[in-house]
Amino acid sequence: MDQKAFGRWIQEKRIKAGFGSQGALSRVCGIDHSTIARWERGDVKPMPENLRKIAPFLGLPYEELMAATGYISGIPEPETGTNYPTTRKVTEKLNSLFKEQIALPYYQIHVGSVARIPLLATIRAETPITDLAPDEYVEVPMHIHADFAVRMSDDGMSWAGITEGDIAVCRDAAAMEVRSGQMVAASLAEAGWEVTIKFYVEQDDQKLLRSANPSHKDTPLDGKEYRIAGVVVKFLKEPPTIDEYQRFLTDLIKASGGWASLLTQAAGVGLSPDDLKKYVETVKKASRKTRE
What we know:
Elements lengths: L2 H14 L5 H8 L3 H9 L6 H11 L3 H7 L18 H13 L9 E3 L2 E5 L18 E5 L6 E4 L15 E6 L10 E6 L6 E9 L2 E5 L8 E2 L5 E11 L5 H27 L4 H19 L1
Antiparallel strand pairs: 1-2, 2-3, 4-5, 5-10, 6-7, 6-10, 7-8, 8-9
Helix pairs in contact: 1-3, 2-3
């Protein structure tokens, strides 16, 4: 059915389930009532993750909602005495479609207990995640709610135990609130929209991307064309080798050596760690006043 027809259909299902208002459904499922209103007007199509959230409250199988919105097709007709195809029938049909390599309308194909999500290298500012059709996918367990993945291509997060080749599994930022301090998948126009994994930080009225590696400088975002595409929820990684561990130790020794020398010099002139901390705070305040 088209979006307008789906809007009328989902409204009927909401009312039939005993939710007299969009706000009533919103309070139990955690989805903003304005989002539900947009579904019912036929303005937008719900994300699969949101369909999963509302299914138990509407008393409908997740598969039926996925079929109604057009994410999956070719679902068998309902069996006698039921209102929807059984999970077994749905799984059998999806498996057959997957084996025949018939393209499904949605990028995430659920087969059994595994979901296949797109592995993305670039994400432009204006392109919805659901519109991307990459050549490569990765498999993640169904219990991990994820929309896409990114392969680490540098050592920017190595001090957090994340190395080149690790795969970051992400939720679409369009479906959730991004908070300062979270690890995100971001892309910038100046870098050709190549996706990078960094900490998103809001600090001193600035927005920036921060690595977990002292050799990488912060990337200010203010005044730049950028996109926070997703929030990292899991990592798929291989066990580190002894060589990787040795490289990490070498970097750590190099980085800490400079600080150790500085602390020694400070102690030699009677300065304590608290004195250095106060000095840093003074410099930060002066820097803010200069920018103002």
